[in-house]
């Protein structure tokens, strides 16, 4: 299927696609950072004793998890233009994806914190730690082991989900692939090539997740045995 | 009370052993678990295998229905080579279907019962006859009810395994194995996972089975039971058969120092308060 | 936000609802089709993986890793535009069902595999000891138990799939999101329409989440037992 002509074309496309893959990575990193921070705030808000705050966080999580990323993206990109807020595609995608992943990450933070035995908190307080200290020195280090594998998984799915940003014409890999396709009309070759680039970015991450799961999976059991 | 008419094996030649184990070795990587086991078991014979943990007795038993594949050596059941066939260049593995057919004649009872948790007690007993022997559901049901009656659990037939005590589960497991009308029954520490007060009910069922003439290989820690029921007791240690003989001789006058040491340790533990 | 937009949207609501309802029906069809496809692929490959063929193991591994590492949107485009360009023309709906089925199949292969591995080895041994072949042991003893273990993951997958079908709008499958774009193109009432669409998706996914929660509680209970 790969003729010399196609090979020449691929050589022509490759630099453009590599630049676009860089944009995909940038979008992933920004959206991930936004999601991680927002997610932590939502997780803490959800555990707050203020009913209205925890309720609000709950509603946010349910809304995000119950609707497609695409619709959220459109609401931010197209919806906000109707109130004269125009956000460029890239930024809109970062905000939409970040806000989306924040809801999922909040759940992971929460489960990580809940999973650490309440006896641990009591033990920390029994040796005179304050709430914040117990959180920082006892709960958090243990929770990290639990949340690290799913958090790395989010990086993989976020990386793939940035492709959705092409539907609001944000500059990234999928969008560039669409452009090249409409120019040369060789969709099979272009999309296979861009698919291979996604693979090259996400497969190492998934090997990383497996490593973390093996490592911390064992570590966690060990901890439980000692506890 | 008799468990099944086929408990007396069909072998006509009394000299022909039902089980013939020939210089069987088993390695797990560098670990040499069985170091050349030779053993014949006659039809109707009850053989208990005792020995310290790690002596290889469970591995040997698992080799006899090919849940473990011997690294070297052969096992014959009723003269038929188990799990392998003679290829052009030495022995080759038997295909899955033929191996399954060989296993239908060998019942096994596991330490941890291994009842199927998604099936009722009766379905646990029926599934073998229905799916393997292609017996009709009605007939399998009848057979199951009969066998459950004999292990004293007829009224539990519609319960799920998790609702039964360990002793009851193990009796169901015995009924499940018997439903295949095996000629040989293997017991792998069938009472080791049970609370002490539940051991007796399982041993009673096994003793009844022995009285009916079933050929049995029993890996056990119950010395009294081994003495009462067995025709022959085998003491294994370090992957070898150290000593064997009738229970009266092996328990009464063990010849090998390792046998004496083992029996002393076991009996001492038992008499300790 | 101009109040006029909301008033206009209110007057057009019957139109909107009709078109979005039709889209929602198609969303359910694509979801159901992709779901069944994915379950069949996942079960089949997870079962084949328990066999001893090295080649089969490697092929399944490659399939699972590739389909999980590449965006489903790329997969849809390869099936719809890519195959179309080399003469295999599929309509948008079948393309979407195949795309989501293959993508989900890769995911569910892993799910079923972990379910199978969670079933105690003793179960297989007991099944073999009553004369079952490996296939029968898998079919009658291991899989029924494995499926119970992974039911929450399957419900989770169904919810994700329902939302992912919105991507089928990019290959012009006339489902909920596609119909929404059409309405936006016609009326420019993007906020109102996309919010309405969000409500449609919530109405479909929240019942599924309720089922999921119930399954998770059930699974937690049976683990304790």
Give a written overview of the molecule:
The complex is a heterotrimer of chains A (227), B (273) and C (225). Helix content of chain A is 82%, strand content 0%. With 227 residues, chain A is an all-alpha fold. The radius of gyration of chain A is 22 Å and the shape is flat. The relative contact order of chain A is 0.14. Residues 218-227 of chain A have low confidence and may be disordered. Helices cover 36% and strands 25% of the residues of chain B. In chain B, helix 3 runs parallel beside helix 5 (166-178) and helix 5 (166-178) runs parallel beside helix 6. Chain C has one domain (3-224): MetI-like (MetI-like fold, Orthogonal Bundle), CATH 1.10.3720.10. The A-C interface holds A 62-63, 65-72, 74-75, 78-83, 156, 160-161, 163-164, 166-167, 174, 177, 181, 185-188, 191-192, 194-195, 198-199, 202-203, 206 and C 1-2, 5, 65-66, 68-75, 77-78, 81-86, 159, 163-164, 166-167, 169-170, 177, 180, 184, 188-191, 194-195, 197-198, 201-202, 205-206, 209.
Any key phrases for this structure?
heterotrimer, B: 273 residues, alpha/beta, 6-stranded mixed beta sheet, 4-stranded antiparallel beta sheet, 12 strands, C: 225 residues, mainly alpha, MetI-like fold, 8 helices, 0% strand
């Amino acid at each position: 299927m790969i003729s010399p002509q196609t090979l020449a074309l691929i050589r022509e496309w490759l630099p453009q696609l590599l630049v676009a893959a860089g944009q995909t990575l940038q979008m992933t990193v920004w959206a991930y950072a936004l999601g991680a921070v927002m997610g932590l705030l939502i997780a803490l808000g959800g555990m707050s004793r203020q009913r209205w705050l925890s309720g609000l966080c709950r509603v946010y999580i349910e809304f995000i998890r119950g609707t497609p990323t695409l619709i959220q993206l459109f609401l931010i990109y197209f919806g906000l233009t109707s109130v004269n807020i125009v956000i460029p595609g890239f930024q809109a995608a970062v905000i939409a994806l970040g806000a989306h992943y924040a809801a999922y990450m909040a759940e992971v933070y929460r489960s990580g914190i809940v999973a650490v035995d309440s006896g641990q908190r009591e033990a920390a307080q029994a040796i005179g730690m304050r709430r914040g200290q117990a959180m920082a020195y006892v709960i958090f280090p243990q929770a990290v082991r639990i949340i690290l594998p799913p958090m790395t998984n989010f990086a993989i799915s976020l990386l793939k989900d940035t492709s959705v940003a092409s539907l609001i014409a944000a500059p990234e890999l999928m969008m560039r692939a669409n452009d090249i396709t409409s120019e040369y009309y060789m969709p099979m070759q272009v999309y296979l090539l861009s698919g291979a680039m996604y693979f090259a970015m996400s497969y190492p991450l998934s090997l990383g997740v497996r490593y973390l799961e093996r490592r911390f999976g064992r570590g966690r059991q060990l901890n439980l045995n000692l506890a | 009370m008799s468990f099944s008419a086929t408990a007396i094996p069909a072998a006509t030649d009394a000299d022909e052993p039902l089980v013939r184990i020939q210089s069987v070795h088993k390695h797990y990587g560098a670990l040499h678990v069985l170091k050349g086991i030779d053993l014949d078991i006659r039809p109707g014979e009850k053989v208990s295998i005792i020995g310290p943990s790690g002596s290889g007795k469970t591995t040997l038993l698992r080799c006899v229905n090919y849940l473990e594949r011997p690294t070297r050596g052969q096992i014959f059941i009723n003269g038929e080579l188990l799990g392998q066939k003679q290829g052009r260049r030495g022995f080759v593995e038997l295909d899955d279907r033929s191996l399954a057919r060989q296993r239908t004649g060998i019942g096994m009872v596991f330490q941890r019962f291994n009842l199927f948790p998604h099936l009722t007690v009766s379905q646990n007993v029926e599934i073998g006859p229905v799916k393997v022997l292609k017996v009709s559901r009605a007939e399998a049901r009848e057979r199951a009810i009969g066998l459950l009656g004999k292990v004293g659990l007829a009224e539990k037939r519609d319960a799920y395994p998790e609702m039964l005590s360990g002793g009851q589960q193990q009796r169901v497991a015995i009924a499940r194995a018997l439903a295949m009308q095996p000629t040989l029954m293997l017991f792998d520490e069938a009472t080791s996972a049970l609370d002490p007060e539940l051991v007796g009910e399982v041993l009673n069922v096994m003793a009844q089975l022995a009285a009916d003439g079933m050929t049995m290989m029993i890996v056990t820690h119950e010395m009294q039971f081994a003495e009462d029921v067995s025709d022959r007791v085998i003491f294994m240690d370090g992957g070898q058969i150290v000593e064997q003989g009738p229970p009266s001789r092996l328990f009464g006058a063990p010849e090998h120092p390792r046998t004496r040491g083992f029996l002393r340790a076991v009996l001492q533990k038992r008499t300790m308060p | 936000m101009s109040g006029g937009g909301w008033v206009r949207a209110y007057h057009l609501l019957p139109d909107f609802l009709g078109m979005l309802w039709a889209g929602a029906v198609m969303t359910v069809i694509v979801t159901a089709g992709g779901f069944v496809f994915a379950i069949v692929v996942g079960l089949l490959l997870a079962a084949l993986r328990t066999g001893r063929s090295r080649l089969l193991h490697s092929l399944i591994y490659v399939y699972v890793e590739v389909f999980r590492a590449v965006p489903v949107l790329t997969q849809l485009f390869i099936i719809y535009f890519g195959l179309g360009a080399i003469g295999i023309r599929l309509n948008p709906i079948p393309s979407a069902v195949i795309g989501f089925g293959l993508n989900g199949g890769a995911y569910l292969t892993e799910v079923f595999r972990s379910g199978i591995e969670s079933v105690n080895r003793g179960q297989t041994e007991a099944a073999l000891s009553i004369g079952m072949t490996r296939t029968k042991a898998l079919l009658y003893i291991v899989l029924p138990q494995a499926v119970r273990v992974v039911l929450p993951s399957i419900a989770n997958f169904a919810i994700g799939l329902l939302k992912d079908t919105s991507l089928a709008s990019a290959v012009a499958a006339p489902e909920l999101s596609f119909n929404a774009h059409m309405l936006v193109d016609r009326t420019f009432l993007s906020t109102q329409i996309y919010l309405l669409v969000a409500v449609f998706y919530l109405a479909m996914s929240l019942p599924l989440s309720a089922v999921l929660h119930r399954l998770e509680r059930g699974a937690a209970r049976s683990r304790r037992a």
